[in-house]
Amino acid sequence: MNELKCKCLTASSGLRCRNKAKSGGYCGKHKKCKQIWNSHQLDHVIKLPSPVHNECGCMTVAGSRCKLKPQHGNIFCGRHKDGKCKKAWLSPPHVSPPRIHHVSPPRAHVSPQRVHIPMPRAHVSPPHVSPTRVHIPMPRAHVSPHRVHIPMPRVHVSPPRAHVSPPRVPTPRVPTPRVPTPRVGNRMNIPNLDDVLSIYKYPFLGDNLSYCQHVFNTSQLFDHMSDSMRLIYPSSFDKNDVFTHLKYRHPIHIDPTYVNGIKKVNYGSIHEDKMKKVLGYDKSTAHHIDTIPALKDLRYSILGWTPLHNSDIAQEAYICHTWGVNLESRYTTDGRYVFSNGSCDDTKYFYLMALMMCQIEAAANEVHRQTGKRVVMRVSKLGLGVWASALKVNGKIPEKYPIQYRNFLIQMTKNKPWLTIFHPDFDNKKTFKIQQENISDNYPGFDHLANTFADPFGPPDTIPDDSILLIINAWDDKSFIGNAGSHDNSLDGWIVSGSVGWPSWNGSKIGSNFKNACYLHNSFFHPSMFTDKNKLVKIDC
Question: pTM for this one?
Fold first, then answer.
């Protein structure tokens, strides 16, 4: 090699530079060569083509050309101690060559790594071959001034198969109209809270109004709530039936009237014209849903997160809205199913109770999954209050039904060391504590007394820092979450209005220290529940 000539390859032709070398052996006129020349470094990794075919094409560590013979049709000997030549010999790096404008046949030596092969525009049939995975023994190239043609030998493909995209064939694009879909953080298709509340003829949220408005208008809080929302339903029910029933509920479901023996919801406290305008349907649609046989025995639950306002119980909570077995009379949907020949079929009754418990357990699992925290659940006797009127014998509910209820709660805590259940019993004004370590053959678990009051939301400072509170709300099977709100003296009304109810353990009204925004859990505030499969929890019961 002539030491007076530059050692680099030109960017334009891919051949050796003919310029006179300066210090360091490079001319410094090419972009890459100039960088090396300026730094006065000799890159011994650069693979230069050999001037003859029987010499190795690499530079040794000392900077001189290797004199050893190449091996197996390659241009590298693979024997230097630094291992770089050997590595290059075993797996030559793929280098995209520059375009060749002019090649003089007598002076050019074409390296297989520096050859530009113009490929015809054709469909590439599998197997697809990655250039970096193909070993091609290269024959002598026939060089022409404008194009290099290399007869291709048989190709050996190393597994695994790689994918090479075939040449792109332009195809006409048909513009697809963009359909907006509801998502977290997007208020599209969500009614305004004040508009929804305008359908009631009285202050529905009571003292909770201002805080509920605050959460609705604060994107960070409302988006967190939307992200947490889940629709839980047993796999035995059709998803579309559940959607239909959930979409067309009554705003209020108390004090019903009967027309020709058919139960009708009282709309005396509702502005029906505003309901139609804000929610898109009226009472006739909701009454029609009540008559569809497939929708009468549905069961499902709504789970969602809410922040708490100045509460001495906790700063946040999850609330699961579900309902128990409705035996207000023997003529309810559940009553017709359970009662036969004038008596209650306990097997059928406990089956309906089990469906509810299965959903509550799924809610606890989901809260634990979302937060990674221990779960402290408070669940009262859903379905064993007013809804158990048809079960009473001599004015009392037989003890076997509350016992079986607690047995379901005991089973729920097994193999769940992260779950603690508090079970308020209003009739006895006691709260029982159920957790895995309390259960044994000699100590059944449901008679472990926690305290002598029965507040469904709990006393102050009972939630450890590593735990999250889960409240099970006694929802109605036909109403919005909250039912009659501030006019509803039940757990469903207390939980949304936070200002009514019987005096609690501390003399205040039940719910006064649990101000929250769970009215926003109603499905019309979260249309993504009907489109996002990640918000559905389908369970086998």
Answer: 0.65
